[in-house]
Design brief:
The protein is α+β, with helices and mostly antiparallel strands and 197 residues long. Helices cover 27% and strands 25% of the residues. Strands 5-4-3-7-6 form a five-stranded antiparallel β-sheet, with helices on both faces. Strand 8, helix 4 and strand 9 form a beta-alpha-beta unit. It is elongated and about 65 Å long.
């Protein structure tokens, strides 16, 4: 193999996060990518256009306990998260409309939605949303017994919107031919993060 081929396989392996095989296929957890060999030569043509990633720089003075700042940082690092927002409060409750808490994939949180059993119940549902990726509107009754009860005596009710955020699926296009050039804008329009090699 030529030095260019070795370099191309090494770079493709770095993008895919796996070892690459010179056998015409690149193995990755995402499946297989066909190597583009120029016709009749045995020279691997390799051109890589990196996806632009602009880091989110937290300006001095911003509070890292603010759920929105933490969410922006998680999205920048391509980490899944769930943002829980109180959207309705009826009766007595420690929660206030607009209060937010974020749950990160590693279990860390930022913000508060009232604390205690209410916050624990919201975070339990946020973990479900983190796993299945489905947004949902949840309802909690701040009473000891009955449907949707969380075992407290406040007597009010709370509705919470849970919005999961996941990094986009990644598509790696190997080759710069007519198919690869056409596939890139379609994949980006479909919500994929695209690396084009």
């Amino acid at each position: 193999m030529s030095a260019l081929t070795d370099l191309a396989l090494e770079r493709a392996g770095a993008i895919l996060g796996s070892e690459c095989s010179p056998l015409g296929l690149l193995a990755s957890p995402m499946g297989y990518l066909h190597q583009a060999w120029s016709a009749g030569t045995n020279i691997f043509t390799y051109h890589c256009v990196e996806r632009a990633k602009v880091p989110f720089l937290i300006p001095e003075g911003l509070d890292m306990s603010d759920p929105i700042v933490v969410l922006a940082d998680a999205l920048n690092q391509e980490q899944p998260a769930v943002l829980a927002t109180i959207v309705e409060v009826m009766g007595a409750s420690p929660a206030r409309v607009g209060a937010q808490i974020i749950l990160l994939a590693d279990g860390r949180t930022a913000g508060t939605v009232g604390g205690g059993r209410l916050e624990a119940a919201i975070l339990a549902d946020a973990r479900v949303a983190l796993n299945d990726g489905e947004p949902r509107l949840t309802h909690y009754r701040l009473v000891e017994e009955g449907p949707e009860a969380i075992g407290v005596l406040c007597g009010g009710e709370v509705r919470v919107f849970l919005q999961p955020y996941r990094p986009p699926p990644r598509l790696i296009i190997a080759g710069g031919g007519h198919i690869g050039r056409a596939l890139r804008p379609m994949a980006e329009a479909a919500g994929f993060a695209v690396d084009h090699c």
